[in-house]
Amino acid sequence: MVTNYLKQNPNLAEFVRYNPVWYRYLSRDPGRMREIEKEAKVFYGKTLPQRIKNINEQVQMINMLSQVAKAMKD
Q1: 3-state secondary structure the chain
Q2: pTM to 2 decimal places
Q3: How far is Cα 64 from Cα 68, in angstroms, rounded to an integer?
Q4: pLDDT, averaged across the chain
Q5: Are the C-beta atoms of 45 and 70 separated by less than 8 Å?
Q6: CA 51 from chain center: how many Å?
């Protein structure tokens, strides 16, 4: 069951490869699949706060580049 689920979700399988302790957790308690999904989202930066932070950083970078372009134009 767990191996099939990991085969269907390559991101989770990769997360488990990077964090081998999850092999032990899942073999003892397959019901922890929801927990591994949450941990993988944090690992890959896919949580809402992480996405907002990433967008904010990109907006700041664009703003800085536009200021530099404006300064070079003057």
Answers
A1: CHHHHHHHCHHHHHHHHHCCHHHHHHHHCHHHHHHHHHHHHHHHCCCHHHHHHHHHHHHHHHHHHHHHHHHHHC
A2: 0.74
A3: 6
A4: 94
A5: no
A6: 9
